[in-house]
Fold:
Amino acid sequence: MVLYAFIKGIFKEALAKKILLTIFGFFTLIIVLIIFAITNSTVDGLQMMLESKSEGGLKEAVMMLQSGIVSGIPMFMLIASMLIITASFIPDMLKKGHIDLLLSKPISRTKIIIGQFLAGIILVFLSFLFLLGIIWLIVSLKTGYWNINFLYSVLWFTLIFAVLYSAVILIGILSRSSILTIIINLLLFFPITWLLYLANRYFESDQKGIVFGPVAETLLKFFYQILPKAWNMQDMCDAIVTHNPVAGYQPLISSLLFMAVMLSVSIWYFNKKDY
Amino acid sequence: MNVIEINGITKNYPAKKFSGDKIKALDNVSFNVGSGEIFGLLGPNGAGKTTLVKILLGITFSSAGKASIFDKPVADVNTKRKVGYLPENHQYPNYLTGEQVIDYFGRLSGLSKADLDKTTYKYLKIVGMDEWGTTKIKKYSKGMMQRLGLAQAMISNPDLIFLDEPTDGVDPIGRKEIRDVLLELKNQGKTIFLNSHLLSEIELICDRVAILNKGALIKEGSVEDITTTGNKYIFTTSDLTDEMMNKLLVEYKSTVHGRNEFSCSVNGIEDVNRIIDCLRASGILIHGVNREKNSLESMFINLIEQKN
Structure:
């Protein structure tokens, strides 16, 4: 009942603030571009290129196309836009006169945070399902190859969003400012976690062009470990879409741990705060 | 039976961030509110009234002391099923209609869709807002928002309702209507805890009041007890003769306010009856005998000035 009220509330807010309309318009534009971009000649060209290199046929060409759709830049743009859209939900909830009413209802403070968190995730999941689901349909219909694994990208993108959204919740509760929440979370997403991702790849590789001091290397590794690994998760999503083995689930586990910590701290702080 | 029990509630706020200095918003406040009462909490701005209500609703936490609602600690979330609340300066999402506000907060109160279908318009009608249910609240006036807030506070049919300045911004007719709603709720056995600056209203509908000043409780009791100044009675009569006026001045130490009115301090009801007997024996008609009272407002101002 409570979760339903929160979901309904968030959808109404998204509808009223024209957020849903913006998402729908933006995603429809992407879909239209993809419809025009993916022509028979595009797929044929990709197929011929792969066949000439003996790297596969139509199946691989479709997967390569889908891999491009869920690659780093589109992933960043989609998730960053969702973070911006949802960043105001918590500060709006904490406005004087509204939070008093919410806390006077027979709902625990923990449930309020979890309800807001899940409601935000459901909104984003449905948005991604709309976009990626239609893209999948278009690509499948145009090529005749139905790569079910592409649909897992909806879940992966939602998961990446959920990890970052947990930080949105915490910063929103602490700062009560939508702008500050957006700035901190976008910086966290890009460039902070992206640079840490690159640094980690560099440390794991054999080629060492740049020499880091031991303190800098330790610090970079430390922050890489404790912060969310959105970019590694995007790699994992890509591997699943292209039917390749996933290198390891450690980035997923540590990101989920980050999410659990963010939510726990949010709940703890929200539970002890006077409003 | 007490619905609310408050024992030694104290609330300190830090004066500045990261400093040890504290501001005492509430200082060892204790009182009870009985079932079925309309209880008024009075005090100047910054007296701690809203802080106390927020502590009772678990919105703010006390620094010391204990409070309970329906014999359960205020931290008990389930107790809130029996509680309605209209906060001061309430803010509903302005993209909602009146009906949607009731639906949203009704669901958060644990009501099902079926319950809400039955009750939403019932309560909107009680507060005179049934014709505005489908209008977005951004078009509502302040008074309409207060009425909607009252409907929201009543939607789960609670046994205890906290109202913080419920008539703020409401016109005199609207205020009368809200007072009537509150009296009807009292007749249904509901307990109402009212925070208001409008002392004349409190006087009209409250059974008991408590007065807070600078976080401390300075007076608590029934409106009757608080506004009664002593054993002074005012008599209104037909024309008094000179002889009678003399007698009243000398024997009863009365103060005569013209030929038709005099006041007199007495030791008890026997003295009042003795004066009545004396008047009647002289053929004077008695139009009224009233115990002298202060208005709640003048008493409140006197008390606050004394304390300050």
